[in-house]
Structure formats: C-alpha cells, structure tokens
Amino acid sequence: MSKLVECVPNFSEGRNKEVIDAIADAISNTEGCSLLDVDPGASTNRTVYTFVGSPEAVVEGALNAARTASPLIDMTKHSGEHPRTGAMDVCPFIPVQNTSMEDCVTCANLFAQRLSDDLHVPVYLYGEAARKESRRSLPAVRAGEYEALPEKLKKSEWAPDFGPATFVPSWGATVTGARKFLVAYNVNLLSTKEQAHRIALDIREQGRGKDQPGLLKKVQGMGWYLDEASLAQVSTNILDFELTPVHTVYEEICRFAKELSLPVVGSQIVGLIPLKAMLDCADFYMQKENLFIVEEEHKVRLVISKLGLDSLGPFVPKERIIEYMVDNTQENHLVSQPLQQFVRSVGARTAAPGGGSVSAAVAAMGAALGAMVGQMTYGKRQFESLDCTMRRLIPPFHQAMNDLLVMVDTDSSAFNSYMVGGVKCSCRGSYLPAGALWKCSLQVRPSGEEPFSCHSNTCIHSTGQKFGHTFSFNVFSLIS
C-alpha cells in the first residue's frame, strides 16, 4: 500500500470565491495530491482545505497553495470570528497510511524551510514538530493573533523557527506541524455568542485558566455567532477523539445548555472525520438505547441523526469520512472487482492473488452465510423467542465477514511487498509472503449447540482472538 499523508491548511479567506477556488486549483493541480474537501466559512472568513498524497507530494501541494494565496490575501484587511496569525494560518501534516508521526514531522520541517525561503515570511513549528515545549499547543503559538505579531516578533522567546523575525503585514506568520487526526466539531445553539462561549469555557480543557480547568481532556473550544445561519456555536477542536469521543463533547454541551435553558439544534463537522470516530458514536447510542444495528452504513446514518450533522447542510458520508474519500483516490481493490474478474485474476499466470486471497474470500462467504441465516431469523414473529440469541450471534458473523474481506487484499499486498524484497523461502520451490501460513478457524455458536465452522488456509500478518471465544485464528504451520 502506498504512503499517504493528510495535509489540512487553513487560509484566512472564506468569502471571496475566486480566491478560495484558486487555492483549491493549486492543490488539485499538484501531481500526486488528491483534494478531498474545501470548507469555507463566511463568518470565520476562513477556509479549511483537506488533501492527501505521498509525503513529498503534500509538501509540494501546500507550497503551491501558499504561493497562490500570497498575492491574493491581504491580512491588513482581514477580519473574522476565528483566531488567526496569517494568510496561511496553520498547516498541519497528519499520518494516514503507511506513514508515521516522524514522517509528518519531516514534512513540517521541509515545508517550513521552503515556505520561509520562497516567501520570506516567519514560520513557527507546533505539535509533534515543536522544538520548544511552549510551542506544542497551537493556541499558545497563536496567542495575541495577527495584531500582536509586530511586538511579538521583537521578543527573542518568540523568534520564528524558520524565516525572518520580521513582521510581514500582508502575510503575518504561518504555523505548521505534525499531529494526530483532529476533529473540528461545532455544536449549534439558539443563543447569544456570550452564552455559547460560557459553555465552551466549561467544557474545554483549558477552562477559564489554570485555577479553573475545564471538563474535557484534549478539547479546545470557544463560542461564536454565525450570521449566515442566525445561530451561535460552541466551536471545538477535539485533539484526541479516542480519549474524548465526539459524542461526549455533544452530550456535555447539551447538558450545560439544558442548565441554561438553551436549545441545541444540531451540530457540524468542519472538514473530514475518521470512520472510527463515527462508529464510536454509533456504539455509544446503540448501547444507550439498546439498538441493534450491524450495517456500517446504518450506524453512520444513526450518528448523523443523533448529532444533527445535517442541520446546516447535507452530510454526505462519501464526502466527509476520510476513509471513504481516500479509498476513492486509490486503485481498485480485489474485493471491489466483479466475481468473474476476481476468479480470472486468480487463474492468471501471476503468483498473486493466490491461495491466501482465495481462502479469505471463501471464509468471508462462509461467515456471510451465517449472517444471512441470522438476519432471516431476526425480527420475524414466528422466531421472536430467538431475537435475543440472534442479536448476540449476528454481529460476530458480520464482523468476521468484513475482516476476512480485508484479508483478500492483505494477502496479495503482503506477497507483492515481499517479492519487492527479493528474498526466497524454500517451500516447494516457491516464493512465500512475509508472514506465515495459518489455518483460519471461524466458530460462532450459542451455548450448548454445535458450532458452525469454516476452515481455510490463509496468509495473514497478525492473529488474535476476537469476539471472546467465538472467533479465532490458530496456527496451522509456520515457514520462516
């Protein structure tokens, strides 16, 4: 699989469509870059761009965007609700696929060096790329915003990491760095800006200061008013959605809003969101309300409804969930091929796809049959007594089906990666993938009944118990 880094530059222009489109074109026309999302805001006067590509390509794409913006954005005339320090306010790099945080730190440093050389502007490093602990937090670097830069740049402790310690009125300064995936999430209130900000102070980690910390870890927040929507928002950045999930932010804001007798009227994702963040929300509401949902599409739909993500505009999953967007930029997977094409590719004069991919496909079909029987039993009046059993059994079959489908491509990719290394293992005179030959044993059963079993040999990278005692991969033989 190719290396992918995500880049999310924020530009201080959200009203002039010609400027917004020119920057988007600069990114789209960069070889190796795929522009996934453009999210402008009139009240914030800011546009968030999201694109992916190889580490080298995203650095070039960010530079092309900055070069395009330089003559088009004049910070001396800028105003908006969002904090900012420059025309290209912030430009983070985020690992997506086959890349590490260290790769993204390298991207940030290379980008900062080249940006400062090209445009002669001050550039700061933040997040995982920060060279000083005091600069790890973006709000700390951005403190005082653009208006404070002339005096700030005169202080030795705020000398930029790259570029001149000189105030450039039309540009300001740029902050770049490396970080985990950030979820930009806003909750809508029919309230004043001040009421929204009061709630933001209660929930954000920074709170009202060191003596009055907020409730939620790894959450930044502020309140503002959206003139174009005639409502206020508690605007948050969730820096670690696994530590503080999106639904936790929403539920806590709703709780504080209720105490103030303020109506919550939906919420908004700015930019893209990881699929896991959506599924974590779905799991929360499914458990809270004892709901039975197995299809990923339905879980996503549940979250859109519960959080009101379509309150300010359509929330189209294929355009807002990063995994769906990235898949659209990649070559077709084996599992996306029509059955006839897949069978013919197995029968072709190539070593991959081979037995591992076929075994995974057959095992996936076996799991699918189990799921089918459960789905045809569940919810029917004559089998109502089995509903609880089916609710317990269908999800493991369904998950096994999805996991095994992934292995169809994993096996082939592992073999191809191993062949690139050119190492030959002696096993009936053939090349082997970088892994092991395993016996896949799938068992799902209610207590006291005979198990359904599906056995096949497949090559995988890792093994582990799943779904308690119902699903496991067991070693059949290992060639090393």
List its salient traits.
single chain; about 475 residues; alpha+beta; four-stranded antiparallel beta sheet; 14 helices; 14 strands; about 40% helix; disordered C terminus
Structural features, described:
With 480 residues, this protein is of the alpha+beta class. The chain is 40% helix and 20% strand. The chain is built from 14 helices and 14 strands. The chain has helices spanning 17-28, 55-69, 101-119, 138-142, 145-152, 193-203, 246-259, 275-289, 296-307, 317-320, 322-329, 339-347, 355-377, 387-421; strands at residues 4-7, 10-11, 33-41, 46-53, 88-97, 123-127, 174-178, 183-189, 219-226, 231-238, 264-270, 436-444, 452-460, 471-477. Strands 1, 2, 3, 4, 5, 6 and 7 form a seven-stranded mixed beta sheet that branches. Helix 1 (17-28) packs antiparallel against helix 2 (55-69), helix 2 runs parallel beside helix 3 (101-119) and helix 8 (275-289) crosses helix 9. Mean pLDDT is 87; it is low at 423-480.
Order of helices and strands: EEHEEHEHEHHEEHEEHEHHHHHHHEEE
What class do helices, strands and sheet pairing give?
Answer: alpha+beta
Q: Please describe the biggest sheet, giving its number of strands, its sense, and whether it closes into a barrel.
A: 7 strands, mixed
Strand content: 15-25%
Radius of gyration: 26 Å
End-to-end separation in angstroms reads 23 Å
Number of strands: 14
Helix content: 25-40%
Uncertain parts: 423-480
The rough form would be described as: globular
Quickly count the helices: 14
What's the mean pLDDT score? Answer: 87
GO biological process, one term: L-histidine metabolic process
Pathway: Amino-acid degradation; L-histidine degradation into L-glutamate; L-glutamate from N-formimidoyl-L-glutamate (transferase route): step 1/1
Protein name: Formimidoyltransferase-cyclodeaminase
GO molecular function: folic acid binding; formimidoyltetrahydrofolate cyclodeaminase activity; glutamate formimidoyltransferase activity
